[in-house]
């Protein structure tokens, strides 16, 4: 198990410093795909949420997104019988992950319940692209690899929900853990829709104020996930031409799925996924196979160095340009398009495939 202390904690609890790598041998999670209807059925009757402020570069206004509270996801698991507060959650249980969301257990849990800094950096960069072209993301096929809480994709979907485009747009979110998609990622997408003008008609139809909290992401609150809300969300997704896909499991499995006929993408995003050097070849192969062509926008956001595990951009670039990747047809070059040097250095690299 390894724990990073570079994270955004929505519960405002500072984690104690810890660096420890587990020597346990674990079995990889199986590959799975989830439909929109499956994830709608997995939602609890009500979720609580808090604001996630995102500081932008230059003079642009900051952005605030609404995100589900971790304690609320924990309560959902307990209420569904996945644990008991009188019992100690196991280190590889979903409850155990929620108790220590920044602990990483390779092959078991990869930190997806936590919102990490570099995902916010991606939002900063993507918002700048939209400044240049407000319709930039509409009509694209978008994949977020190792999405976790899904903040970059949640931001993109929120922007689409705020507009009137109905151009077909496909968004695929992948995380190693299915529980992350169900407990955090998908609820955050629901919140992105609810906090947008697209939910106005639904909100106007609700007479009970307890079922219709203010559509203000700067406020904390609770949102009842009623059948009528789910229907309104589904209708809005269709109206905007959005198709959503979700998958979990190892990167190798998604790469195989894409190679066997899965569609490629115009935009491929990933953040905080290069910390394990042994996983870099699989990640790079997936990124390459997922890109439609050399014109695809492929962005990798990460820290310059991950202390304690040896990963970072130096190792990533070395693997990207290695003979192994050349032989596999997956080599490339990287250009820094965003950088922050204060504190622990962070970068966003745009990958160009050779």
Give a structural overview:
This protein is of the alpha/beta class and 354 residues long. The chain has one domain (2-11, 18-353): Rossmann fold, CATH 3.40.50.150. Helices cover 34% and strands 21% of the residues. It contains twelve helices and 13 strands. The strands form three sheets. An eight-stranded mixed β-sheet has the order 2-9-7-6-10-11-13-12, with helices on both faces. It has a three-stranded antiparallel β-sheet with strand order 4-3-8. A two-stranded antiparallel ribbon has the order 1-5. α4 packs parallel to α5 (151-162). It starts with a strand and ends with a strand. The model is unreliable at 1-7, 9-26 and 84-92 (pLDDT under 50).
CATH fold-level topology:
Rossmann fold
- Rounded mean pLDDT is 87
Q: What gap, in angstroms, lies between the N and C termini?
A: 35 Å
Largest sheet: 8 strands, mixed
Number of domains: 1
Helix content: 25-40%
Q: What's the CATH H-level homologous superfamily?
A: Vaccinia Virus protein VP39
In the CATH classification, which architecture applies? Answer: 3-Layer(aba) Sandwich
As residue ranges, the low-confidence spans are 1-7, 9-26, 84-92
Radius of gyration from the alpha-carbon trace, in angstroms: 19 Å
Strand content: 15-25%
Look at the helices and sheets and give the structural class: alpha/beta
Number of helices: 12
* CATH class call: Alpha Beta
Shape: globular
